[in-house]
UniProtKB/TrEMBL annotation:
Family, per entry: Belongs to the NADH dehydrogenase family.
GO molecular function: NAD(P)H dehydrogenase (quinone) activity
Taxonomic classification: Bacteria, Candidatus Sungiibacteriota
InterPro entries given in the database record: FAD/NAD-bd_sf, FAD/NAD-binding_dom, NADH-Q_oxidoreductase
Record-annotated FAD/NAD(P)-binding domain positions: 7-322
Swiss-Prot/TrEMBL cofactor(s): FAD
UniProt keyword annotation of Flavoprotein present: yes
Alphabetically ordered keywords of this record: FAD, Flavoprotein, Oxidoreductase
GO biological process, alphabetically ordered: aerobic electron transport chain
Oxidoreductase in keyword set: yes
Name of the protein in its database record: NAD(P)/FAD-dependent oxidoreductase
SUPFAM superfamilies to which the protein is assigned, alphabetical: FAD/NAD(P)-binding domain
């Protein structure tokens, strides 16, 4: 039987894409002539806030499959029982004339409406040697590569230096989590090893760590890093990277054994080939309705939305992606029903939870601020709440328990 339904195609199964697909599937039921199609190159939804945990869990504690099951959620589990069609395949182009997305091994997927939620990729800022000599942290394989490299270094029984580039939320969480296990692991790997010979350093180009965060959060994180023995170096702009040394713009040189780069993201290289308007950061330029052009919307990391209150690009994080997803879906439904679209109005402040090592987190819920162990409890409850929204309750709890067990293995 030929399917003549008009397609609303969502590209990307990240936080924004999944939120949009689930909301759209609920609202589109009254419009039987439409169907929701979700496309992603992976079969899974990656719970990216837990990636830093994977990079800091020893092999003896968990093998790759066990690790993956804690942060990877099959898309089929999420869409089961919902009217969402899933196509697994890499997006390789956009046919604007035929209004179709070109998917590797799936051909052209026509659309009436398109919502792009493909996320971002690591930005190396054209710094010589940076891409070749650093380790990014954008996917599951990245996290495993970092973990395996660090274990190999520890087995050499010599002093090592681990440098993280970028003191934003990801960089802070990575360096703090590494401090949890690295010295104890070195003692296990090297017999008769009494002293920890690991230097942990995070460098940041801005005058302060955690650019964009408030003084309350920065102060707590600074104290916590000091307690964990982690050094910070601000006003350090990376100018060149070799296999053993990082050179700053001020000619300061830092020797290292592994350099983890979390210093920025940019739009996908794919976007340059789509014929859509881009921002200077090479993300998709959107208007107040989150439209790139008529009937094409973008949300999350790949959307360059100018915040009317500041005149600057809106910061990228999970709460923003989810909020944008809801507005974009609402506008698609409004346009289908012949109503006026509504502008996306960002909140003045979004909640966040930042983990800083062993069972410690800084949590700003907008109406309440917490830190320490209670902040960590908030973190795992926030994760459970998210899983509950996208999965059947039993599966949500099972996945959450696997993740918590994994987190505890590094504590």
């Amino acid at each position: 039987m030929v399917n003549n339904k008009q397609k609303i195609v969502i590209l990307g199964a990240g936080f924004g894409g999944i939120t949009a697909a689930l909301k759209l599937a609920r609202l589109i039921k009254k419009y039987q002539e439409y169907e929701v199609v979700l496309v992603d190159k992976n079969y899974y939804h990656l719970f990216t806030p837990a990636l830093y945990e994977i990079s800091a869990i020893p092999k003896e504690e968990a093998h790759g499959f066990k690790l993956k099951s804690a942060i990877v959620i099959p898309v089929e589990d999420i869409i089961y029982g919902r009217e969402i069609k899933f196509i697994q395949g890499e997006i390789i182009g956009l046919d604007k004339i035929r209004r179709a997305v070109v998917v590797k091994n799936a051909g052209a997927v026509p659309f009436e409406y398109l919502l792009v939620a493909l996320g971002s990729e690591t930005n190396y800022f054209n710094i010589p040697g940076l891409k070749e000599n650093s380790y990014p942290l954008k996917g599951f394989r990245d996290a495993l590569r970092i973990r395996n490299k660090i274990e190999a270094l520890l087995e050499q029984n010599r002093p090592i230096t681990i440098v993280v580039g970028g003191a934003g939320s990801t960089g802070i969480e990575v360096i703090a989590e590494l401090s949890n296990f690295i010295c104890s692991l070195q003692k296990k790997l090297v017999k008769n090893h009494a002293l920890c010979q690991v230097r942990l350093l995070v460098v940041e180009a801005s005058p302060e760590i955690m650019p964009g965060f408030d003084n309350w959060s920065i102060g707590l994180v600074r104290k916590r890093l000091a307690k964990l023995g982690i050094e910070t170096k601000t006003n350090f702009t990376v100018a060149n990277v070799t296999s053993q040394e990082i050179t700053g713009k001020d000619n300061t040189r830092l020797a290292y054994d592994i350099f983890i780069w979390t210093g920025g993201v940019t739009g996908l290289s794919l976007f340059k080939t789509l014929g859509l308007p881009l921002t200077p950061k090479e993300t998709l330029a959107v208007n107040q309705y989150l439209e790139v052009e008529p009937r094409v919307f973008a949300i999350g990391d790949n959307a360059g939305f100018i915040n009317p209150a500041t005149g600057k690009l809106l910061i990228w994080n999970v709460p923003v992606a989810e909020a944008e997803a809801k507005v974009a879906v609402r506008n698609i439904i409004r346009e289908i029903s012949g109503r006026k679209k509504t502008a996306f109005r960002p909140s003045r402040k979004y909640p966040f939870v930042l983990t800083v090592g062993k069972k410690y987190a800084v949590a700003d819920l907008v109406i309440l601020r917490l830190s320490g162990f209670i902040g960590w409890i908030i973190k795992i409850l926030v994760e459970l709440n998210y899983l509950r929204k996208i999965l059947p309750l039993k599966k949500a709890i099972a996945h959450w328990l696997r993740a918590v067990k994994l987190y505890r293995s590094n504590d």
